[in-house]
Amino acid sequence: MCYNFKNKTSQSHPATELRIVLIGGRYNDFPSGKSSAGNFILGQNVFNTSRRTAQSEARQQEVFSRRVTVVDTPGWWWTWPRENTPKLDQIEIQNSVHLCPPGPHVFLLVIPVSLYFSQRVKASLKQHLELLNADVFSHTIVLFTAVDPCSDETVESKIRRSPVLQWILQQCGNRKHFLNISNREDRDQVKKLLEKIETLITNNGFRHCSVDRSQGETLRKEMRDLTERASKRFDQVQKQRNKLKLQIEGRLGVTLFEIICNISYSVCG
């Protein structure tokens, strides 16, 4: 089903609460822009953009008279299959929907305008979105981002040249928004995005994405188990390193003692 944002509007009756989950990938040293987009939407630097997002985090601010919750998530490698994504990252992505109870109203699929989309990106996206609810696409808006000045026509031109982007937009009911995060003063970009989210909520019958509460506890247990096992492995490695260090220092000490003795013997001799 294709939703037309122009048919319905919620500007006169804005929602009092909006729950947003940011999803997307990364490519080599190219940042995904999810954290920056989250900061832009909330109007505060609440997400750390100096490092990759290792775990899902929820932050909340009042934005245009709405209580907006944004959940940032770990990004997967755009061109890698899901099996190459660390298990803990996969669990964190799954757990993101449990950080904004009773469930997210919308997923914002963050795509940098300058990123090239191949068929491998398409396959990776499908696999990683399977970590979330089956109806994730019906709750998704594609959020194109740019850190340099960029026009709407540039975005449209990129879409026309990319079959993969066209497929993604088709899955998401052609819902999209462009956010020029280089222009932090232009809050009208955010206002229009929130209005599109409200229209999506209306078209979805005011239903948020369904969340299995029992899954949340299972995921938290998996995270605890993985963290504990990782901590034990780290302790074992540290003990082995310390043992090796002592052995090396001991051997160096013996060698140094032998050298001193030999020198002394030669001098005395």
TrEMBL record:
One Pfam family here: AIG1
Superkingdom of this protein's organism: Eukaryota
Keyword annotations of the record: GTP-binding, Nucleotide-binding
Coiled-coil annotated spans: none
GO molecular function: GTP binding
GTP-binding in keyword set: yes
Species of origin: Poecilia mexicana
Domain AIG1-type G positions: 19-217
Similarity field: Belongs to the TRAFAC class TrmE-Era-EngA-EngB-Septin-like GTPase superfamily. AIG1/Toc34/Toc159-like paraseptin GTPase family. IAN subfamily.
Protein name per the record: AIG1-type G domain-containing protein
